[in-house]
Amino acid sequence: MKSRSEMTILEHLAELRLVLLKVVVAVVLASVVAFLFGDKLLELLTQVSDPNFITNRWLCKLAGILNSPDLCINSHRLSFNNIELAGQFTLHVRLAFFGGAILIAPYSVTAIARFILPALKEKERKVSIKFLIYSIVLFIIGVAFGYFIIAPIAVHFLANYSLSESIANQITVQSFIRTVTQTVFAMGLSFELPLVVFHLTKWHIIEIKVLKRNRPIAIVVLLTLAAIITPPDVFSMIIVAVPLWLLYEVSIFATKWAKTKD
What we know:
The protein is an all-alpha fold and 262 residues long. Helices cover 74% and strands 0% of the residues. It has eleven helices and no strands. Helix 1 runs antiparallel to helix 5, helix 8 runs parallel beside helix 11 (234-261) and helix 10 runs antiparallel to helix 11. The longest helix has 39 residues, at 122-160. The chain is flat and about 70 Å long.
């Protein structure tokens, strides 16, 4: 059997195709399993609008303590509509694929890593493994923050936003699920910022002085963003703005650390 170094480009491509095929088959099988629990996946995503959801419950309790009614969000659970004949079946399939992809993610990452790592030098392999571990941890933290904090606040804001009293909000279940999943996924990616900035600095693509010089602008942008998506009270704005600001500061710290490693 040939070693990796003796394999031709076509042989490498054939091996990569086999790895990707295994990942696809694994995702399909996991999606079949997830299809059986479609109602549970739907409940997991829609409960961010439930008054009994932990974030909504705590904020409403805090609203009573602080005598600030605006702080209480999602006090009434939303009702959803379906306006397409195959809408619920299509949603069920999408949820199954989404759940299957997440369920099999550890195997997918491991399979791809086992294909790439042997081609790297020892030092590069160690760096890649650390990068992979850190990125996974940061992504999970970001997803948790998006699900428990940002998604309930965003749902409350969007569901109650009114351009005109003559327009009634009739929310389709598809649009709700799309909004929640996009919000959660976006926060997962946002929490990768320190890691991305660290490597950009290591490669001399970005300088720390640029981040420091633009700090006031970044803070204004983050506060504005937080003010837009939160209810009209300072506490909710702080809940969203502070973690985003901390990510920016951690990114600056990451650039300093990268400099010391040069």
